[in-house]
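Now for one specimen:
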Amino acid sequence: MKKMTVNIVIDVLMLVATSLLSFSGFLLEGILPHCHGKGGVLKAFLGMGRHTWADIHLYSGIILVVLLVLHVVLHWSVIDGFFRKTIKNSILRYLLYLFLLIVLVLGVIPWLFAL
């Protein structure tokens, strides 16, 4: 498969995962009732209750994070080229890379406990 095709597939999947994440989050927050009975308009939406939508929300978030990491890995040469042009000092650039890696790890760690 061509690199362009792979990038388009990943981008479309990221769009779908983001849409599912947003939509399910909206349903969970505003439409479906909480466990303790406050708020909510419906008991189910499209035949699925709050717990099913919570699972969809969780797994679409996990898929989005995995796709985002894959997206960054596939575009690393572009990212590196941008920072090489922008930040001439290699030590400062590597400190930035280290900071981005720490942010990535801190973003992934909570997902390990969600599974």
About this structure: The chain has a mean pLDDT of 84. The radius of gyration is 19 Å.
